[in-house]
UniProtKB/TrEMBL annotation:
<comment type="similarity">
    <text>Belongs to the COX17 family.</text>
</comment>
<protein>
    <recommendedName>
        <fullName>Cytochrome c oxidase copper chaperone</fullName>
    </recommendedName>
</protein>
<keyword id="KW-0496">Mitochondrion</keyword>
<dbReference type="Pfam" id="PF05051">
    <property type="entry name" value="COX17"/>
</dbReference>
<keyword id="KW-0479">Metal-binding</keyword>
<dbReference type="GO" id="GO:0005758">
    <property type="term" value="C:mitochondrial intermembrane space"/>
</dbReference>
<keyword id="KW-0186">Copper</keyword>
<keyword id="KW-1015">Disulfide bond</keyword>
<feature type="region of interest" description="Disordered">
    <location>
        <begin position="1"/>
        <end position="35"/>
    </location>
</feature>
<keyword id="KW-0143">Chaperone</keyword>
<dbReference type="GO" id="GO:0046872">
    <property type="term" value="F:metal ion binding"/>
</dbReference>
<dbReference type="InterPro" id="IPR007745">
    <property type="entry name" value="Cyt_c_oxidase_Cu-chaperone"/>
</dbReference>
<feature type="compositionally biased region" description="Polar residues">
    <location>
        <begin position="7"/>
        <end position="27"/>
    </location>
</feature>
<dbReference type="InterPro" id="IPR009069">
    <property type="entry name" value="Cys_alpha_HP_mot_SF"/>
</dbReference>
<feature type="binding site">
    <location>
        <position position="39"/>
    </location>
    <ligand>
        <name>Cu cation</name>
    </ligand>
</feature>
<feature type="binding site">
    <location>
        <position position="40"/>
    </location>
    <ligand>
        <name>Cu cation</name>
    </ligand>
</feature>
Length: 79
């Protein structure tokens, strides 16, 4: 019994199925996480900023404008 080492046939089948599944899925799905659109990011600070600007004008709302910019930067936007 000193011949070739025996390989577990079930593990070969599993690895082939896994490789085949990866090949199929890699062509049809996007692996990068989807990035939010800037219009949909930070809805809370956006709402406060917009309400303040409508009621008081842009000059009076620098605090809310900067808070919204800070939130957008935290989400990865360059603003």
């Amino acid at each position: 019994m000193g011949g070739l080492p025996m390989q577990n046939p079930s593990s070969s089948v599993i690895s082939l199925q896994t490789q085949k599944g990866q090949e199929v899925s890699s062509g049809t799905t996007d692996t990068k996480p989807k990035k939010k659109k800037i219009c949909c990011a930070c809805p809370d600070t956006k709402k406060l900023r917009d309400e303040c600007v409508v009621e008081h004008g842009e000059a009076a709302c620098e605090k809310w404008i900067e808070a919204h910019r800070k939130c957008l930067r935290a989400e990865g936007f360059n603003v």
